[in-house]
Amino acid sequence: MLRSTFLHLPGVGPAIEAELWQRGVRDWGQVVAAVTSRPSSAAALGAAVAASERALAARDAGWFARRLPMGEHWRLYPELAEQTAFLDIETTGLSPYEGTVTVVSVHGGGQVRSFVAGEDLEELPAYLRRFGVLVTFNGSRFDVPFLLVAFPQLVPPPAHIDLRFLLYRLGLSGGLKRIEATLGLGDRQGVEGVDGLQAVRLWQEYRRGNAAALERLVRYNRADTSNLVPLLELAVRELTGRLLGTAARTPGPALPAASA
Predict the structure, then answer these.
(1) pLDDT tens for residues 126-135?
(2) What's the structural domain count of the chain?
(3) Which of 8, 35, 181, 215 is such that its CA lies 20 to 30 A from the CA of 59?
(4) Within this chain, do residues 90 and 2 fall inside the same structural domain, yes or no?
C-alpha cells in the first residue's frame, strides 16, 4: 500500500489520490505522467517520487511519518514490518500522574521482550529506538502519554498506528478483547478472564512476594501485544482492498461495511 500512496507528494490530496486510484495508477513510478504535463509541476513531483524511493530504500519510517497524517501511518505496514513494534503497557492506575508503569511488552524484530518495573523497565526507551513504527491499541491516548510521563527522555518511534481508531474505520468498536472475540482472532490461552483490574491485583500480589503472579501478569501483557499482529494484518488487508477497489471476499471473519 505504501507504493500506492500519493498523499505525501506535492499537489496531491485525498481527492486527487482517489482519482488516481480510479484511473488505475498504483505506483509512484506512474504518478508523474498521470498528474500533470506542466514541466515545473512534473519536476517537483518527480523529485518527490525520487525522495520517496530513497526513503523507502533506507527504511526511513520517519520520513513518511512526517509527511502523512497519523491516521494513514498504517500504510507503512507491511513494507516496514521488520521495524514495527507492537506495544502494550500495564499500570497501577488510569492516570500517569497517579499510577505507575509495571510491565511493558514489545513484540517486534522477531521476538517479544517484556520489561518489568524494578528489574529492567528503565531499558525500554533505548530498546524502542531500534523501531520506526509503533503499533498500539488506544496507545495514542493511554500507553504513549503514560510512558512519556514515566520516561521524559523517551522518543517513541516516529510512525504510530493506533489500532483502536483503525479498526473503527472498519466498523469495529469497543475494547481489544471484545474485538478479538468478534473476529475470532488472538490467543489468550492461560490468561482467560484476566482484565485490567485483575492485572493491577496481580502486580500487588507480586509485590507481596508471589512470583507466579508476575509470570501471569507478563503472560497477559504479552497476549495484549502479540494479538495486535493479526488485527493489524486484517485491518491493512481490508483497508487496502477498500481504498484501491481490490477487495475480494476471502475466508475469515465477516466485517461490517464501513467508510475507509
Answers:
(1) 999 999 999 9
(2) 2
(3) 35
(4) no
